[in-house]
Amino acid sequence: MTTRTESRPMVGIIGTRHPRPGSSMLAGFGEKYLLAIEAAGGIPLLIHLTHDTEVLDAHYQRCDGLLFAGGGDVDPAYYGAAPHPNLGTVEPLRDEVELALARRAAGDGVPMLGICRGIQLLNIALGGTLYQDIPAELPGALDHYASSAVPEHAHLAHPLTLAADSWLAARLETTALPVNSYHHQALCDIAPGLRVTAYTADGIVEAVEGVGPNFVIGVQCHPELLWEDADPRWARLFAGFVDMARRHSPTELANTIGADR
Question: Are 227 and 36 in contact, with CB atoms under 8 Å apart?
Fold first, then answer.
């Protein structure tokens, strides 16, 4: 992949599909993700779901980074598990497209950011597993769906603790902060190449980062709903990710990540 020299890197954001009664499917993209990347200095590149590998390859070749957004559950077959009775909506084509892109990006050293479903997708793509339903599998856990009752889901539902030596802690300039929470699944076995860098009091993983030269970060909260008003510190996450996308050669990334830590 050719490293871009433009000051505003292209960040690929994979969409989803929504049924429309009496008509064709709608291709959907959460606007908040697009605005967060745009405000951080990137240019969102919308990648629609398709079986056409030539189209996906053309999209991918234009990307300096990939953002995996929130959404439904990933098919547990991808991590060798049978479906739990509380498994939510699964989008087979989205799973197929995102897992293929994540694995390709991991091999090429393309920076990746995963949000909510996205952190789970990245963990699966790199060899990890999930708890399919927190209330059923982890009795006594906090209510990790608490922000769902609040408009735009920006409610700061619980605090999290960040590893002091993590990239995220350096960017946010803190090791503890409250976040919104809108998920019923969570990371279980952590994939090789990732390390846990944030968690809640009940032990649920809230963030992971890559341990090698590639820039990979996943967060379980929804910072795209926080950075404008609820907690502007999260704008630094998007700015840092876009900066990594701007200079994504493996050598540069290794030097940059080391310097930031």
Answer: yes
Read off the pTM: 0.91
Q: Is 54 a catalytic residue?
A: no
The catalytically annotated residue of 91, 98, 116, 184 is 116
Angle between helices 92-108 and 53-61 (to 10 degrees): 40
Helix (H) or strand (E) holding 218: strand 216-219
pLDDT single digits (tens) 161-188: 999 999 999 999 999 999 999 999 999 9
Question: Which one is catalytic: 59, 155, 183, 222?
Answer: 222
Q: Encoding tokens for residue 236?
A: 């630094």
As a CATH number, domain 10-260 is: 3.40.50.880
Q: Is 206 a catalytic residue?
A: no
Q: Where are the alpha helices (DSSP H) in 73-225?
A: 92-108, 117-125, 134-137, 167-172
The residues with which 229 forms a beta bridge, in sequence order, are none
**CA distance linking residue 243 with residue 227, whole number of Å:** 17
**CB-count burial class (<10 Å; 0-12, 13-18, 19+) for 124:** buried
For residue range 14-46, list pLDDT tens digits in order: 999 877 777 677 778 899 999 999 999 999 999
Active site residue 116: yes
